[in-house]
Amino acid sequence: MGQTVFIPREVDPTEGRVAASPDTVKRLAALGFDVIVEAGAGTASRIPDEEFAKAGASIGKAADAGKADVVLKVRRPTDAELKGYKKGAAVLATMDLYGNDAAVAAMAKAGITAFAMEFMPRITRAQVMDVLSSQANLAGYQAVIDAAAEYDRALPMMMTAAGTVPAAKTFIMGVGVAGLQAIATARRLGAVVTATDVRPAVKEQVQSLGAKFLAVEDEEFKAAETAGGYAKEMSKEYQAKQAALTADHIAKQDIVITTALIPGRPAPKLVSAAMVASMKPGSVIVDLAVERGGNVEGAVAGKVVTTANGVKIVGHLNVPGRIAASASLLYAKNLFAFLETMIDKASKSLAINRDDELVKATMLTDAGRVVHPNFAKAAESYQEPAAVPARTMVADASAKPKKAAAKKPAAAKKSSTGKGTA
Fold first, then answer.
1. According to DSSP H, which parts of 129-172 are helical?
2. pLDDT grade, residue 239 (50/70/90)?
């Protein structure tokens, strides 16, 4: 009997994606693994249990996670899920770690070997494993579809006997994978597209897709990209110049889509309340960074907000999950491609090479310790919060509030917070 791979149904009710497909199940079975898929895991991604069974999986229940040597997930395991995993199990998922020190500590305490798929290095060998790119690509597409659904006019220019319908003016802010796909999708739908980004390398990419590029092209702009291809955080001075340039442009747009994210940091604010107020009634803004605080002032996570001047600000959560059937197929392939590099073909079992560059980049916890350099120091100093006494959890409604005694100002303490790790 071979080792077991378990694919659970995601516990978050808003998550429709699944970490396997019939194709990856078939491949795992061919490598000698016993694959168990929790009943209903693929339902929201239009993959019925029967399809997984035909591919060679057994249909099981959540408790089967305790048998697994490998667990493939979409989202970070919850504390309840961790209790069901056996020590030493390898867990591959998108971990969403920054600002979640307690979750990192919990995974180490559970004794699992956790891999954060979003830390996959952007190198040629790892392109097929890059979950950020595969999911961002679909998010960029879906952002345009969501914008078109909220926009009450046609996107392409239409010349008819009754008159001409003008093309929608669409502005994409942030030209990473999501931004490029948003440009391509908006262009296919007939919109007139402009785009901006702080990285000079994307200018040609924007123009190659038929859009116009807008940016403050000074010396800081020329050095605004990290070795990994991400945008650097720009100075306050540059941000002010860029804001002045884009403010007038935004006022003329029908649709604005923002995609700017910096790994490990809050999303930069790109669109102010004043810019929103300058837009025409019926205009639409889609904020793809809303889960990290948002690029748009006034955006609300999980909601579509209509401002006083009639502008809709779309703040959908988990945008790739809104197109789960497609997102799951790509995500499953990402996970399988990485897992395959850790399988010994001769013994048909998991054999993690801890010196491999992909393992070093993504391994978060191992043998009861936090091993990723970005989180190891924080884990050493992390302490679980003390339990709250039961008597303090419910206030006595009949008690009269006591006047607080005057306190002397406490001496300022030095912050123990480390610098950003992005």
1. 131-150
2. confident
